């Protein structure tokens, strides 16, 4: 291993650590602040909760596509490959790992999931969103990409408007301790710095490494490491919620994040990059489509 390669890997891992730490802190503190500041507004809590868990994932592809303006030295193809890897990594982690884990812990789709109605309502829109993103990647048309991005954002807004609060799960008592609120706010601001600095360091290492190892490897590295770094809060939250028996809350975390990841980040890619997808991008996209279709088919009506 050359000195340059070792340095690039260390930079990459440093960025990974910053993103991981920032994502965990950001999600934890944002959730607490949302519960405190939006007490009594279930829809507002749900919407902001989704965004607090998903914002770190959206920043990495956003910075990857903006990187030519930020002084990074790399080709446009490298920017696209790494950005698309970050976009596909998060939903792949959710649909291929966390969603099966949820099903395993709760009995599987054959047990008449209480959320079956929600799955039947939301999955077709997500299939449509992902299909639009993949089809748009087959054409270089700028106006078509802008229109496709608009449709994806509209589908996300529609999914939020269809949210329904669960009257069986009333909110917990509000936090009245000012010192705790101040501490949570300070941690939130610190985490915000980390989730902005982390992707910059991560991308610097990955772009430098891409010069030495061109080809498909940076795409897979971006997809795997970005997913591990940014989806850890969802994984931890899912594990602890299932341990406490809060199945509905765990379900909403997983599918709230999936709904965001399959609409907003692809829209960012459509707007800020050439979005000329290659075979490896399409293969991962079609794998996610297959998982969505299977989940929709196995979602049974309650007896």
UniProtKB/TrEMBL annotation:
A single Gene Ontology CC term: membrane
Cellular compartment(s): Membrane
Entry's transmembrane regions: 6-26, 47-66, 78-102, 123-140, 146-165, 186-207, 219-241, 253-277, 283-299
Keyword Membrane recorded: yes
GO BP annotation list: transmembrane transport
Domain Sodium/calcium exchanger membrane region positions: 9-160
Topology term for the membrane: Multi-pass membrane protein
Domain of life: Bacteria
Membrane listed as a keyword: yes
Keywords: Membrane, Transmembrane, Transmembrane helix
Main location: membrane
Protein name (record): Putative Ca2+/Na+ antiporter
Species, as recorded: Leptospirillum ferriphilum (strain ML-04)
